[in-house]
Amino acid sequence: MNKQKKTGLESDEWDALKAYTDARIALGKTGVSIPLRESLRFRLAHAHAKDAVYSRLNIASLEDDLAPTGLPICAVHSQAENRDTYLQRPDLGRLLDEPSAKRLQGLNSTPADISLIVADGLSATAIHKNAVLVVNLLVEQVRRAGYSLAPVVLVEQGRVAITDAIGALLQPRLAILLVGERPGLSSFDSMGAYITYAPQPGLTDERRNCLSNIREQGLTPIMAVNKLMYIIETAFRLKLTGVELKDNGGLAAGEVPKELE
């Protein structure tokens, strides 16, 4: 492979690929080591990832930002009392604590077509960066399609399967969970969306569909909403989600649905 000198560092044809990915490629080298600037960038990325794992939901801020939807908002907590417990006991993050279960029961809401749930997961940072836009756009599209919505549920210390505990109480036809994904060294602010038809305790992940890497540098919020609407409509038609529902719809890269322009 031909190499040339560039600002005192060796570079090669891999450099051109850096424009297409946030992955750590074409770092270059100084002697037998990577350049100091790349070593420092790695440490910064690692710090961002650690901070994201221990970030906390600002419930009051989310409630204010989601108020334009006009939907009731209910804040709940899993059985994981704190972050350390959450990280060590994944099972507790899948269950509601008793006060939260009573709070949801007290809503006495009529079972709706769709329940929207927002959980911190492994990166509350990702939720604060991405969830509000996704929820606001999705609510608009869901209403336009004629579906009813349950109160929005905000979950602290929640994991994916807490969808089923909430579903058992609200009894929606379909639940969508937005959750902070495990931070990576190039994506500490990535959010996932899990779609579950007829959520109930005992389901496994093969019964869910997942959209991953929702963020401006990945699957943008607008594109995520478009894909979610495709999955919602297909799920109601087939009466299922999971491995039997294939995401064959959606947009070409960079395309924006006309209704969201």
Task: Set out the fold topology.
Blueprint: E1 4-6, E2 9-11, H1 36-53, H2 59-66, E3 73-77, H3 83-88, H4 98-105, E4 114-119, H5 124-144, E5 152-156, H6 162-170, E6 174-180, E7 191-197, E8 208-214, H7 221-238
Please explain how this structure is put together.
- The protein is built from seven helices and eight strands; from the N terminus they run E-E-H-H-E-H-H-E-H-E-H-E-E-E-H.
- The protein has one domain (59-253): Ethanolamine ammonia-lyase light chain (EutC) (Rossmann fold), CATH 3.40.50.11240.
- The strands form two sheets. A six-stranded mixed β-sheet has the order 3-5-4-6-7-8, with helices on both faces. It has a two-stranded antiparallel sheet with strand order 1-2.
- The protein has 261 residues and is an alpha/beta fold.
- Helix content is 34%, strand content 16%.
- A hairpin with a 2-residue loop joins strand 1 (4-6) and strand 2 (9-11).
Features:
7 helices; two-stranded antiparallel ribbon; globular; Rossmann fold; 8 strands; 6-stranded mixed β-sheet; 261 residues
Mean pLDDT across every amino acid position? 88
Largest sheet, if any? 6 strands, mixed
- Straight-line N-to-C gap: 45 Å
- The run of helices and strands is EEHHEHHEHEHEEEH
Strand content: 15-25%
What's the number of extended β-strand segments?
8
What would the principal axes of the Cα set say about the shape? globular
Separate helix tally: 7
The CATH class, by name, is Alpha Beta
What is the topology, as strand order, of the major beta sheet? 3-5-4-6-7-8
Oligomeric state, counting identical vs distinct chains: single chain
Give the CATH superfamily: Ethanolamine ammonia-lyase light chain (EutC)
Total domains, how many?
1
CATH topology type: Rossmann fold
- Spans with pLDDT under 50 lasting ≥5 residues? 1-9, 251-261
Helix vs. strand class: alpha/beta
Helix content: 25-40%
The radius of gyration over CA amounts to 21 Å
**CATH arch. level architecture:** 3-Layer(aba) Sandwich
